[in-house]
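Input chain follows. Return structure tokens only.
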Amino acid sequence: MTRAPDGKVVDARLHDAGTLHACFDGAPGVDANFYAEGVIAGVSATGKGKCTTIVADFPEPGITSVRCFLVLSNLTAPYVAGVLTTNSVTSRQPIGDRSDPLGYIQPSIATIRLWRKR
């Protein structure tokens, strides 16, 4: 749940924040173009960007740290532009909420910044 005046997340477990369907033109662990469409906190968006490997097998074998970004467009009014950035992890279990090895938040922690028209 978000607080209406400033959008701060005050309860992340109440309901899904949104959905994002993504495509990558490369395998996990390499630089890849990144395309996504979805709805986040009620705002529709399309994004184009890139994912770049930070380091493989860190902090242990099977875990790869990745950073990604999307430049957001086609946003629901009143928003006119935005950026999504992630701190992402891939593991030997690439799909789902349980990493292999266990214990890592998978796949991404995302920050979204949206701008309104002046």
